[in-house]
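Shipment paperwork, digital attachment
Item: protein structure file
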Amino acid sequence: MTGDTDNKFLNVGVLIIATLLVAKLISTLIMPRSQKRLPPVIKGWPLIGGLIRFLKGPIVMLREEYPKLGSVFTVNLVNRKITFLIGPEVSAHFFKAPEVDLSQQEVYQFNVPTFGPGVVFDVDYSIRQEQFRFFTEALRVNKLKGYVDQMVVEAEDYFSKWGDSGVVDIKYELEHVIILTASRCLLGREVRDKLFDDVSALFHDLDNGMLPISVLFPYLPIPAHRRRDRARKKLADIFASIINSRKCASESENDMLQCFIDSKYKDGRPTTESEVTGLLIAALFAGQHTSSITSTWTGAYLLRHNEYLSAVLEEQKNLMKKHGNKVDHDILSEMDVLYRCIKEALRLHPPLIMLLRSSHSDFSVTTRDGKEYDIPKGHIVATSPAFANRLPHVFKDPDSYDP
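Attachment content:
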């Protein structure tokens, strides 16, 4: 009896498999083939192969696949497809397309736990544009000119503690002086004078809560995400107290915090405490990260290349002869040699290694060797400044520091 039952189950199993195979064959024969010229796909284990490659490091993956697949290719990440566009010939649409075609909101949702609700990538495009206007107004030239005096005070105070000689960790030192400066100019006098250590530690937890896995699973209950969420809540409480104190005392300061407090939407609505906190966190992430990374690499390259360091120092000596010891926005703008040294470090080591968009419509690209590919609606589209900035057909001797 048991043998008959086993045979029945075996027969049913074989029948199901045969039915699926026949159905697949029929669908292949009768369904029209896609006429789209899809990009090549990175090979890997089914379902998780692309994810493993991506989490090991996008740049490592690009270095391995670009020579084999060219400037346009797709990686499958479980239920998502990311298509990379590498180089100026294929990435123009990425940077020029309107939000309705290539959107930032969906792909940068992983920032919402860090920045908080109701700001930047947690709002629709029209509101986001108004919030970007708040950033622009806070960083106008007349505002920046006012910030420079505070920057100079912070820098002089910090470096006055150094001796005439010694060994330092340049990455740590520059990160520290930049976070001090950012606290003064962006977060406000109250944070810089009384709460710097607390706020700095909380921002450290926020920063460490943004991992490669966070891009795909921002709410995964891992220790780093829990610390991130606790830090975000404490920062909200700190800034709510500062905002209320300023409003009650009718105080007005020359910093970004004050700009956000005073900002209003087109309909006349003022910003909320939650929005001000979120915008400040976003501003610090955008400014402190980029400045720290770029400053560190610029310093490292100048120390390695004495000819460029000498040129930078000579330029500043000439400006001191012209203007004395005064340093302001206009004098900084005259430092062209330093500017080019910073820009070259930025080319070689851009803070954002990858930029993302969500495709809301089909579009096509043509590679430099004439191949055409169709990028379907629904793909995540990516480009990598860190990789594209070292392409040998774009930059002569691309890995060399040559300002």
